[in-house]
Amino acid sequence: MNKKELCKRYILFIISLFVAALGVAVTKKGELGVSPISSVANVLSIKFTILSLGNWLIVWNCLMILGQIVLLRRKFQLIQLLQIPLSFLFGYFTDFGMWMLSGIQPQAYWFRAVLVIAGTVILGFGVSLSVMANVIMNSGEAFVKAVADTIHKEFGNVKIGFDIFCVLFSLILSVLFFNGRIQGCREGTIFAAVCTGLVVKYSCRLIGRKVEAILKK
Prior knowledge:
Shape: globular
Order of helices and strands: HHHHHHHH
Number of helices: 8
Oligomer: single chain
Largest sheet: none
Structural class: mainly alpha
Strand content: under 5%
């Protein structure tokens, strides 16, 4: 891979972060829950408003990077430390997306549901772009891979288990923080869990080869 192609791939990855962060922001506006991996940060942002959703996502992502280091130890590749600045970038992009959408105040349930659907599609497309860039994994996926490699299980199965853990953890936090009420993790979280992967799969099939051809030019 030459320097020109590598540069294109990192640019595409940064674009993918922006698109994915915008998807999180749109989903958040629906107030019906966000994606499983963002659900813990979402609950924390509702309870502890001193930090924005984007800032809590930075904290959460950095914890997952730390988890990779603990699990992999000497096998942890130094290049993966790029996840740290990229996590900050994702957090800033999320808050920027929230600012862009600040004028939208949905009241009707159908409108909120539309925002969740649209946000999930945008998020899935952003994730698919990061897959096409093929330079570095985001911290969530990298943590799942670290766990899978450590316990010698298939990535897909561990990913499902981690998503379930995130949802359950966010539900527990919600119950503890809000006197038994569910906040920040609702039906939109389940929808995102089921449909994000489908959007990624379809997007990669639809434009994957075209994007790869552009990157190699």
